[in-house]
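User: My collaborator sent over this chain with a note saying "see what the structure looks like." That's all I know about it. Can you take a look?
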Amino acid sequence: MSDFDDIRAYQDHEVNAILSSLLYDTDFLNFVSMELHPKISRFIPYFVHRKIRNSLKAKFEDIHNIDAWQSIIAPYVELLIKQTTENFIVRGIENLDKDKHYLFISNHRDIAMDPMLINYALLTSGMNTSKVAIGDNLIERPFVGKLMRLNKSFIVKRSITARKEKLEAAQKLSNYVHESHKQSNNIWIAQKEGRAKDNKDRTDTAILKMLHLAGRKLGWEFKDSMNFLNIVPVSISYEWDPCDIDKAKELTFDISDQVYKKSKDEDFQTIIKGMKGNKGKVSIHFSKPVSLDSNVAEDWTKKIDQCIFNGYELFDSNLIAKGLLDDSVTSVVVDSKRWNKRFSKVDSKIYAQIIKSYAQPVIAKNNAVKKNRYVKSIC
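Assistant: Without extra context I'll predict from the sequence alone. Here is the result:
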């Protein structure tokens, strides 16, 4: 794994050193202080830092590997789910074999919560958690990168622009995924680069072609690489997206041909907002592993998409939005008070985009059923 030092997740022997470095990371201590003691931290930060350092040091002393770290984190994830969701539903986990390992490909709504919820579902089902692909734009703060890599995240270099360097990075990423898979690791990756802010979930063939680079180097056909990776489509459904208005604002820039410029630290703040915001009901659906006798990337993306669409859980928010989009909201037998309260003060252009985004899962699921009536049997 030394060939992948710049992108790989941390390994067991590195845990103690990384945790020790966090105890003296001022940025990390500032963040924890403001989360736990926001008022007092403004006046006597040194005292709060020392108190947090001593508390964390006592907890870190018993953590010597990645599994132990994730065991410590699990109760906090469980608490976060209880505090920010009204119901967390996991379906299709019976489609997985605990003695096998998979590459999970899912739609992407939330930067941190998507893989966190998938891993929590795996962990509570007695399965190994997965390594997680994250963009390098998310680790601008060093302590965030450390925490993510401690939690089995590996880096996708999205900021590279030179063609040769992009190809080299893609080859290294593909090699790392294949090597991790050979070592019996589960892996999670989003179906395309970045979140689908408009909720139009389509698997990018470029992702699958990147995953094939390592296999192609060995002389494998495309289908050999895909079948080797044991791909499982995963559907993630949120009743409410804590970042829905922010996403709609950004999309209105694209529609008006304006350039949207992210503010400093925006990605980090989005992570926090997505984690702490109320999500209502949340559903995770694991499809059956995909297997195809085809070397055409589009055949694979089509089947992955079908399974993701089929696995959607449609909530009242989606049905209200579809009714508004079709101008038939009166026919939707749901309570729309929460919808109206949430968006009553939103600008009309942004509101129109919100409606389209929340309606997309209904549209995609309906189209998938119409075009492929056998989809339930294959997923």
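A starting point for your reply to your collaborator: The first strand starts at residue 85 and ends at 91.
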